[in-house]
Design goal:
Length: 157
């Protein structure tokens, strides 16, 4: 009796261990961004100009970025950045928290359903069918103080 009970517990332990391995490691599979470890998001597109680590020409990328600052609209600003060397558009990706100047000018555009009124803090780049392509105003301000209506960083409160 003692021997069969011990074998039963051992079998349960093996089964539990196997389940932990199956379910525990299954979360490690699937497509993820290697650098930041997140799954792709089909409703986002990353627009990014690397500055310091620009693969084409870091100096020219920084000059181009500076030349885009006076653009009068967010759409014009983004179009100007698109002409800079090394600018990249990556579907299903979004900006990392550290992708701000002087490292990068980065915007995550999101596809949201068109409603009568969009939430505050969103800048509409364009409308495609029933969806608005928007970026968050705070990410625009992080990349360009000129796009937020002030030329220098405001004093702390």
């Amino acid at each position: 009796m003692q021997r069969s009970l011990s074998a039963g517990r051992r079998g349960q332990s093996l089964l539990a261990g196997a389940l932990v391995m199956v379910f525990g490691f299954s979360g490690c599979r699937g497509p993820k961004n290697a650098k930041y470890g997140h799954a792709p998001d089909p409703d986002t597109t990353r627009y990014r100009l690397l500055l310091r680590e620009n693969p084409v020409d870091p100096r020219e990328a920084m000059h181009c970025y500076a030349g885009c600052q006076p653009q009068p609209t967010p759409r014009g600003y983004l179009e100007c950045l698109m002409a800079c060397p090394g600018f990249e558009i990556t579907p299903e990706e979004y900006c990392a928290p550290d992708e701000v100047p002087p490292l990068a000018a980065c915007f995550t555009a999101r596809k949201v359903p068109v409603k009568a009124e969009l939430p505050a803090g969103l800048v509409v780049l364009e409308v495609v069918g029933m969806f608005a392509i928007v970026i968050a105003a705070h990410s625009l301000c992080a990349a360009s103080t000129a796009q937020c209506g002030y030329e220098t960083i405001p004093p702390p409160h």
